[in-house]
Amino acid sequence: MSHEKSATARPPYGILAVLMIGAFIAFLNNTLLNIALPSIMKDLEIETSTVQWLSTGFMLVNGILIPTSAFLIQKFSVRRLFLLAMTLFSAGTILAGFADAFPVLLAGRMIQASGSAIMMPLLMNVMLVSFPIEKRGTAMGFFGLIMMGAPAIGPTLSGWIIEHYDWRMLFHFITPIALIVLVAGFVLLRDVKERSGAKLDFMSVVLSSFGFGGLLYGFSSAGSKGWDSLQVILALVIGVVALVTFIMRQLRMERPMLNFKIYRYPMFALSSAISIVVTIAMFSGMLLLPIYVQTIRGISPLDAGLMLLPGAILMAVMSPINGKLFDKIGGRPLAITGLFITVVTTYLFSQLKMDTTYTHLIVLYSLRMFGMSMVMMPVSTNGLNQLPTRYYPHGTAMNNTLQQVSGAIGTALLVTIMSTHAKTRGTELAQEAAKNMTSQPTAEAAAAMKQQIVMQATLDGINYAFFISTFIAGLAFVLSFFIKRSTQAEDIISNRSLNEQIIKPQVSNQ
Questions:
Q1: Among candidates 125, 160, 146, which has minimal Cα distance to 28?
Q2: Is 499 within the bounds of a domain?
Q3: 47 and 129 together in one domain
Q4: How many CA atoms lie within 13 A of 392 on its CB side?
Q5: Does 490 fall in a domain?
Q6: Smallest Cα–Cα separation from 286: which of 465, 110, 140?
Q7: What CATH number does residue 457 fall under?
Q8: Residues 509, 264: Cα–Cα separation, whole Å
Q9: Which three-class secondary structure string do you get for 139-176?
């Protein structure tokens, strides 16, 4: 579909509605699980470094499969890909709902991920080709409203379910909805796309899997095994070597699986860099705050979910507003403002105390979400706007792949920082307590002292991780000053190759 055609044709609202509902279910499942992690840890008797695999394992599968989505979008129809994605997601949800051991639960999550990996790039690509560039910010804003609805209701719904039922009910709740969406897609969607002659290069798939998979596994394992583990080092080395080989192969191929030539477009390259850094920083709030409020403060799952609700609602409401602002003023003012708010609020989260008030946490988290709402969608849309239409599948696949990789890196990095600092502080606090003892404490007093030391050390570890996250967000803030409003490069396809003669992009100074 050409850009001109997509600009004048009526957007396929029916297809978009079905795709958005499917993606909404996938997002809702993720936000439901965040609040449930402490309950899962207790029920299955596992540690933080183990339970994080429910997130990083999900991202691992996404990181392996998403690079193939550009090929899949070009090769198959929207209907076939959607039905495949929802079938896999539904199967994984059913398996996870009946899990009685962590490996089974993890397997269910990874099957879910195989469906999610297809869903998001597919939806983004349909959005891009359905709206002209001057209306794309508004369209993406309303897309953000739908997608932010899941974070708005997910934590609160999860907290209520966990407080009244077993955590497995989270998956049982999603299962019938996913099956209804699957049936709706089967009935409503039609095959309207002609098959292309694209062929999947097997070696590219292997190199991509070992490249992105190796990096994701290495960073994810570092949280539990340590950075000096031979297994971690070997995974990272294999990942780097395979990824470099994969990139070199793609640059030489006439029809690459994932086209790295899109990085010749400066605004897309900049948007990728900012998105990577912001995603890493974003995981500090998503991962550390639930641990703080439930493990240290003893706040109930329902109250923890309610604490996150105002911020999620604010982010959802601001999404279409920011979309309209993006169409009018561009991405730079939004990104600079949003990242400044993000940096300040992240730093304030590094000053948490044992008695930080519930209201303070709500206000701070809401402000952080308000800032985040100005960054992710506008920056990503500005970068994609510069690409010719034929590169949209590659751009969306690249963005989603890098988001998963950076998410896994952020999770592993912050968990490692928190755990390492907490152990160090625990040792220091124990030594200080031993020095200040005047007599041998009773067994009850010793147990209470040990519990207090563990809680304080964990709090210090969380604060330190937020402090490091502040500098990470600061890097994205600096990069945001280089954003310029992009216009789409000419979509001229050479008779010799789709990938030759990339037109130099035009970038205004707005």
A1: 146
A2: no
A3: yes
A4: 24
A5: no
A6: 465
A7: 1.20.1250.20
A8: 18
A9: HHHHHHHHHHHHHHHHHHHHHHHHHHCCCCHHHHHHHH
Contact 308, 133 (CB under 8 A): no
Check if the beta carbon of residue 169 is closer than 8 Å to that of residue 161.
Answer: yes
What type of residue sits at position 68?
T
Contacts with 5 (C-beta within 8 Å, 6 or more apart), sequence order: none
Q: Are 228 and 218 in contact (CB under 8 A)?
A: no
Q: At what angle do helices 358-373 and 331-349 cross, to 10 degrees?
A: 160
Q: And the tokens for 181? A: 């969406």
What's the pTM value of the predicted model, to 2 decimals? Answer: 0.73
* 8 Å CB contact between 26 and 116: yes
Instruction: Report yes or no on 492 lying in a domain.
Output: no
Q: What are phi and psi of 507, to 5 degrees?
A: -130, 125
Could you tell me if 343 and 375 lie in one domain? yes
Beta bridge partners of 486: 507
Kindly report the backbone phi and psi dihedral angles of residue 486, in degrees, each rounded to the nearest multiple of 5, phi listed first.
Answer: -100, 150
Residue type, 145: L
Read off the pLDDT of residues 178-214 as tens digits, 9 standing for 90 and up: 898 888 888 877 665 555 556 777 888 888 888 888 8
Amino acid identity, residue 15? I
Residue with tokens 């999860």: 158
Residue 228: domain span? 202-252
The total domain count for the chain is 2
Residue of 16, 182, 13 whose CA lies nearest to 84:
182
Rounded Cα–Cα distance for residues 155 and 489 (Å): 41
Tell me, yes or no, whether 100 and 163 share the same domain: yes
Tokens of 296: 């240290």
Same domain, 19 and 49: yes
Task: Determine the 3-state secondary structure of 258 from DSSP.
Answer: coil
Give the pLDDT band (50/70/90) at residue 339.
Answer: very high
> Is 463 part of a structural domain of the chain?
yes
Q: What does the pLDDT look like over 369-408, one tens digit per residue?
A: 889 888 888 888 888 888 887 787 788 778 877 877 787 7
Same-domain check for residues 219 and 129: no
Token pair 């003012």 in the structure block, residue: 333
At 489 the pLDDT is 62
